[in-house]
Structures are given as C-alpha cells and as structure tokens.
Amino acid sequence: MLVGYISPRARSLDSQRADFQATSDLLMRQVTDLLVRVKHLEDQHVEDVARIDALEDQHVEDTKQHLRDVRRIDALTAYVKDLLAFIRTHVPSPEPPPIPPEFSNDI
C-alpha cells in the first residue's frame, strides 16, 4: 500500500530532467537576450563617448579660435586708434564724423 501511494506521485528522473531542461532553456534564452542587449548598450556607450569627446574637442577648438579672433580684433582696434591719432596730428582737416555707437566702446 505504501508503494501504491508513493509511486503515482513520484516523478521519474526523465520528467524531472525535462522540467529542468525547459526551465534552463528559458533562462538561457533570457541570458542570451540580456547579453545581446548589454553588448548593444556598450557599443552605444562607446559611440556616445566618442561623440562627446569630439564635441569637447570642437568646443576647445572653437574657444581657441574665438580667443585668436578677439586678440586680432583688439590689435586692429589699437592700430585704428593709433592711425586716427597719427592722422589728426599730421593732417589738418575738419573733425571726422562721429564714431558710430556700435564701435565707440572698442575705439
């Protein structure tokens, strides 16, 4: 009687193996999917870092160019001031027209 009671409920080793295989196959598919997604995100991260580095390099280059332009404009402004002073002292002429307000702070 004890054997009849346990035997119908006892699962065979093959059915346990099949259940384990089904569960492990599902987990392996999920792990594989996650690995693919992680690889995609890592590649995207590398591309993003490269893009950010390129933007930072461009920003640095733009800033350097801006500073070169400002120095050049300052040198040209100083030259125009000296040229106007030279002309006023060596060439007798009426007073030149007023400097436009857009430039009055620079000259």
Automatic annotation (TrEMBL):
It comes from the Bacteria. This is Uncharacterized protein. It comes from Nocardia farcinica. Keywords: Plasmid.
